[in-house]
Structure formats: structure tokens, C-alpha cells
Amino acid sequence: MKINWKKIVGLTAAAAMLVPLAACGSDSNGGSNNAGGSTSGTEDVTLSVWVPQEDQDGDNSWLAQVEANFEKEHPEYKITWKNDVVSEGDAVTNVKTDPKAAADVYMFASDQLGGLMDVQGIGELGSDAEAQLKEQNGDMEIKSMTGSDGKYYGVPYTDNTWFMYYDKSVFSDDDIKSLDTMVAKAAISFPLSNSWYIGGFYDGLTLFGEDGTDADAGIVFPKDAGEVTKYLANLVANPNFSNDDGASGLADLKSGKTHALFSGTWSANDVKEALGDNMGVAQLPTITVNGQTKQIKSFSATKAAAYNPNAKNPKAAAQFAAYLGSTESQKLHYTLRNIIPTDKSLASEIANDPVAIGQSDTMANTAILQSGQSGMSKWWDPAQAMGEGLVNKDVTADNAQAKTDDWVAQVGTYAE
């Protein structure tokens, strides 16, 4: 979903981090040696941690278990934990407020990487954590953690993208290959006015280079973007299409008014409740524009754990951030909260999960990397305005090219 950049979460632990970082030697995990004051042979360490509310609900929450497991793995530390509630989507906003007062360890959405780097609020992975990143993850996930300097920041624990849910009693396996075929057959809903989704129709769109790390490359639209906009204007006029405003799509699916929904893993339980055994999950279909087949491609990103280089105990912070994304922690996350892991060694754990398969197929075949460059912030408002213009029919087949030119001028360029 589009990040809510303006939301600020109250932080009870911020004052605890107003301490300057002592000069120390580096270690292989990207942290530093910082001796504590304990005389018992262990190091006294305080770690402040930001994770979503759902990960710390209850005495036996995912976070509580991971912290206990980390303590067992690292008996050299005597840890005082200071946990606070900050979602992945709000991490960059809160870190930017005061990087030195931000948590030692936090979870973040990968498209925030550039913003976190800009304020020096995210630590580079050391050699051990980098090896973990590359061993556990595929190319897309690794690229999502790659900064514009070519270095690595953060350890992913789940993918973040959208795909297609559909009613198997209405659409066949062949039908779902083409959105045009689906719309000709039955009603579907799509969140066209949402800026995280509308870009999916512009096959050939690139976000800061092919791997998302080239700040100078910018946002580049395909040459035929105007024709795609014209296609979308005609799609909106189709009585079998409805815009999903974030709630209407699911409501219409439950009532039987529509038979396909485009969303992510967070909608799985609701869709299952609506469709039961008829719930289908698949990668994205194609469309046909001027006789040319175009692939719908979702923005793909990850959610990851990172450490703050301003932490008082950066070595322990770096180790715990990597542990949040470890195989053991990802497996527990899936068991407790159905958070689908990125770790390739856990493939057997999700082999019979249709939602996991649909997400994996989408990441591999019908997605582009949502860049972590800070310039990505230019995308959201103009893209939303274009989507709303289409839904409100202010953008029509007749003015599609002119409206597209205006949009492109705001955020990027056309391909040469």
C-alpha cells in the first residue's frame, strides 16, 4: 500500500536514545565493540526496538519470543529491552525526526531506504549480515536492500507487493491470463485511484534504473504511456469494471457483485471468508493495447529489519536486526502471524499456501522493484491524481495523451 508519509506515531522511548555514539572499532556485523559496565562476564546492553503493534501483542508475542531466543543465542549480553510501536510504513518519518533519538533497531518498508540513508539513520550491513542477506534471498529482495552507493542495508523478512484474487467458479485458468478476457466475462474491481497500483498498467515503466538504485536515472515512462491511459479510460467506461476505494472491492466480492480483487497478503483471510474453496490466487494478467500484449506489473518491495548507526550499542543492535530476519525468526513469524517469509530455505513451509505461491509468482514474473531512492516520493501524489481523474472521467480517451504528458512532466520523462 502507499506509505502514509505524514503520519507521526508518539514515541515513549525516544528520550532514552539522546546519547552520543562513542568512537569504537568496527566488527564484522557492521556494529562496534562497546564494553558495558557489568562485572559478571557479560555486557550490559539496552536495546530500543520499534515493531508494529501486531508483533508485540500479548506476553508470548512474536517479538517477545524473538527477543528471548536472541538472548539464548547471545549469552555474552545482559539485555534490557525497550520496545515501542512503530509500523514499517512509519519508520522513515520517525527516524527523520531525530536519527540520534530513534530506536536502535526498527522495521521498515524498503522503498524508504533512500530517505533513511539521507539522514544517516540506517546502518550498513557487516560481512556476516551481508552473507545472510544473499544466502536467504532472491535478486529482487537483495536489490531492495541495495543503496545508491552499492552497499547493503537491512535484512528482509517478507515481500510486499500485490497480486490477484479471483473466484475460481467464474474464471478459468485461461481466463485469468488476460484482464480483457476477464472483464468481457464478468465484473472485476481494481484500485485504480491508488497510486501504488495505477503504475502497474504502464508496462516498461522504470523506477531509477533497472535495479532501482540509479538516482540519476529517475522515473521513465514507456513511449506509449498515452495509449495505456486511453486504454484505462475505456476500461473505466466498461460496466464490468469498478474502482476499489480500499473497502468497496472486498465488499463487492463478498456480495458477489464482482469476482476479482487486486490486493496483497493482508487481504487473504477476508477473501477466503468471501470465496471459500473458490478462492483463486494468481500473478497478474496481461492487457492488450493497440494490438500489443502488455504485462501488468505490480510494485514490489520488501519489509526488513535494520539497525541505527547512532545506537549506543551498535554491535548488539546490528546483530539483533539481522536476527529479526533470520530463518528461525521468519519461520516463527509465519507460524504466528502468517507473515510469508523471503528466506528460500523455508520454501517447503509455504509450498501448499496458495497466497504465498501467488505472491512468489508475482515477485518473480509480474513485478518491478519499487525503488528505495528518495526521489520516489515524487511519484505518489501525481499518480493518485491521474487515477482519480480516470475514475471521475475527467481523463478520457480524447484527452488521454495530454493528461499523460502533464503527469510525466511532473514526475519523470518518456523513454527515448
From TrEMBL:
One GO BP: maltodextrin transmembrane transport
Tree of life domain: Bacteria
InterPro entries (alphabetical): SBP
UniProt GO molecular function: maltose binding
One cellular component term from this protein's GO annotations in UniProt: ATP-binding cassette (ABC) transporter complex, substrate-binding subunit-containing
Gene3D superfamilies given in the database record: Periplasmic binding protein-like II (3.40.190.10)
Transmembrane regions listed in the UniProt entry: none
Signal peptide: 1-22
Keyword Cell membrane tagged: no
Record's keyword terms, sorted: Signal, Transport
Family indicated by similarity: Belongs to the bacterial solute-binding protein 1 family.
Protein name (database record): ABC transporter substrate-binding protein
Source organism (scientific name): Bifidobacterium hapali
Upper classification of the organism: Bacteria, Bacillati, Actinomycetota, Actinomycetes, Bifidobacteriales
